[in-house]
Amino acid sequence: MVAVAGRVAVVTGGRRGLGAALVDELLARGARKVYSTARSAHVDDRPEVVTAELEVCSAESVAALAKVADDAEIVFNNAGALRPAPLLTGDLEDAVETFDVNVFGPLRMVREFAPILASSGGGAFVNMHSMLSWLAGSGAYGASKAAAWSVTNSFRLELAPQNTEVVGVHAGFIDTDMVSAIDRPKAAPAQIAARIVDGLEAGVAEVLADEVTATVKAALSGPVEQLTFSAAG
User: Per-residue pLDDT tens for 166-198?
Assistant: First the structure.
């Protein structure tokens, strides 16, 4: 259980979409400072927000951020990449980049920031997954989110001795630029951000941010053939 009020947070991919909604939600709940990162420079006039450039695929960039944000207490690994092409026919480099951003990006962040959080008493990492972590049919993106889920669960064990909480977040489609071309029902980013922070402050290990995600999670004990993107409606 990690209260946000008075804390210092880092949000990767904080310039737009869910990341921007998380920055807003953290400030609304009294965060003392929020580092909002993006691949390119951006401006935020609010005095509590510190903007920073970050490329999660670069160990050097992540290390540079850690030197700037050495007072961080909560880290939201929100930055992600979506390449929806099929595994067999899609560009292999797109698949590699998807895993680099969605799996190795959070791994770089956690390795770099774990000692910082330990020095502040433990804090928390919050990692964005997807209901597609559990569903076949979404190419490298779903496969990368499945790997990220597994990595997050291992982080939770490895970071427990330093009292760092690890929260995994699963959500369906959120109304952001990333999925604008997908014709599916979508939740508002502000709604999902509020549920994520609710879960963090409640001390849960895993946030199921919407009804469709809860339905998919409940189906995990059933036949694997039913765990497909099309079956999720």
Answer: 999 999 877 666 655 556 666 789 999 999 999
Structural domain for 29, as ranges = 8-232
pLDDT tens for 211-229 read 889 988 988 876 655 556 5
Express each pLDDT in 114-152 by its tens digit. Answer: 999 999 999 999 999 999 999 888 899 999 999 999 999
Residue 46 lies in a domain: yes
- pTM for the model: 0.91
Task: Single out the residue of 220, 181, 214, 184 nearest to residue 199, CA to CA.
Answer: 214
Q: How far apart are CA 53 and CA 56, in angstroms?
A: 10
Q: Residue 221 maps to which CATH number? A: 3.40.50.720
User: Which of 82, 44, 36, 57 has its CA nearest to residue 174?
Assistant: 82
**H or E element: which one contains 63?**
helix 59-68
**CB neighbours (10 Å) of residue 71?**
14
Asked whether residue 3 is assigned to any structural domain, the reply reads no
* 85 CB burial (10 A radius; 0-12, 13-18, 19+): middle
Q: How many domains is the chain partitioned into structurally?
A: 1
- Look at the block and give the residue holding tokens 């009294």: 30
The three-state secondary structure class of 68 is helix
Residue 86 lies in a domain: yes
Q: Can you read off the two tokens belonging to residue 67?
A: 């030197």
Q: Considering the domain boundaries, does residue 2 fall inside one?
A: no
